[in-house]
Amino acid sequence: MTDAxxxxxxxLAGGQGSRMGGADKGxxxxxxxxxxxxxxxxIRGLTDDLIxxxxxxxxxxxxxxxxxxxxxxxxFAGPLAGIRAGLAVARxxxxxxxxxxxxxxxxxxxxxxxELAKVDPSRPVLCKRGGQFEPLFSVLPxxxxxxxxxxxxxxxxxxxxxxxxxxPSLLExxxxxxxxxxxxxxxxxxxxxxx
Length: 195
What we know:
globular; seven-stranded mixed beta sheet; two-stranded antiparallel sheet; 30% helix
């Protein structure tokens, strides 16, 4: 590790993969490797607390993480369920969140998020690409966990709404920053595999 870790990192890989025909997106191949391995390789050196939220294929995901978490309830409850599980076990005061299907993420962007979170550790950090908020590229103060639990109990399932009501710091990115590109469908995987 190049410097002292200041952040736990959570990779969200617990989805149903409905737009991938039910495939586990993190394990779908892109350029010869599972998508989760691209994310892992970009961030492994930046934390000693790498968590993966998965609801299946735990044996495979265990090779990419320090720890695994799963949704508390049955079925696939969405990203906020995985985030709640990650917050519950994070070893550091901040939890950086990334989706498993962003194989173009790089350590430069992740470092920017971590550094921005250090400016005011009490506030979440949220990426904004052009005019679009990207809530699954964010940093949450672990102290926000009770607020998120209360929102969940009240029926809230949108991480973005929670972030926006907690005065996030924004990391502004160019409108077509490919590092945030989610490869959600088999067609997108094929289209972008050569880029």
